[in-house]
Amino acid sequence: MDRANKPQPISSPTTTGPQPQVNADKDRVSATLPTGDSVEVLLYGATVTSWKSNGKERLWVSDAAKLDGSKPVRGGIPLVFPCFGPPPKDHATGALPQHGFARNSHWEYLGSSSSESGPLSKGGDDSVKLDFGLSSANLSAEAKKAWGYDFGLVYSVTLGKDGLQTLLNVRNSGTIPFDFQMLLHSYFSTPSITRTTITGLAGTTYIDKVLNATTHTESHTALPITGEVDRVYKSIPQDTTSVLVDGKPILDVQRDNVRDSVLWNPWIEKSKGMGDFEPKDGYQKMVCVEVGAVDGWQKLEPGETYEGGQILRAY
Ligand SMILES: O=P(O)(O)OC[C@H]1O[C@H](O)[C@H](O)[C@@H](O)[C@@H]1O
């Protein structure tokens, strides 16, 4: 399917009036709603690099992010699959790089569809869904050698009046089972990290990667971010984690069939150590709330599928 080269305005035969617009070229696909809300996805990594809602950019992307396919994008929503972090050496993913291969593989644009129903189309408003695919057949020789399973991924990015949904579908298309982890490594924009708090994690057990991977229980109803944070919250009972500024929500992150979330801000020293993190004080303007399945492994038998993701709502 080589539809990526042609611009693809879409229209629905059942409705009149302004319709969502979709444009695709060989590197990226973008969609804009009549309201002006928009999303942009780079085929490299199927990385969402922009989501504008009510006139505001909601994702943070580093000024030094590589968008040319030479390195995973520092910002937006990189996709982590089939391993999170550095994989354990004695595991089937052990030869893969940190966070796996999905974020640095070239995905195929599978096309768009519009819908008047679904979680982002309340009251019959149009939403637009963009589908992207990656399978063992179009993996680099290097990644295939490191992880030789037969799989198919479909990543659906749906822009609606009420928010953005990103959903990953994983299929085992081979004859032997495999284990995987997945994560949507979202970098959200905030006007000021010192005015930012995170809610919806209280009572949850987390691994603190800054404190030698020790286990703790979250005690804050509204968690301030006052230094480097790198935590894996496991089996979160609440559906939604929210980002607040001055005590008011700016964004809800709703887990969709996944139960874990990583909270990350590199703060001063870690930002200095990342060549693609600019400006160096950019840590003041971002926070990562990353939903996924990263506590242990998901096992897929031949022919089975798994689906998980997030629904984002901006205020
Ligand atoms: O630098 P990257 O490979 O993109 O990883 C960026 C970050 O991703 C996650 O949030 C991990 O929990 C962090 O430990 C890691 O530093």
From TrEMBL:
Name of protein: Glucose-6-phosphate 1-epimerase
One Pfam family matching this protein: Aldose_epim
Compositional bias per record (Polar residues), positions renumbered to this chain: 8-22
Physiological role: Catalyzes the interconversion between the alpha and beta anomers from at least three hexose 6-phosphate sugars (Glc6P, Gal6P, and Man6P).
EC assignment: 5.1.3.15
Region (Disordered): 1-33
Coiled coil location: none
Reactions mediated catalytically: alpha-D-glucose 6-phosphate = beta-D-glucose 6-phosphate
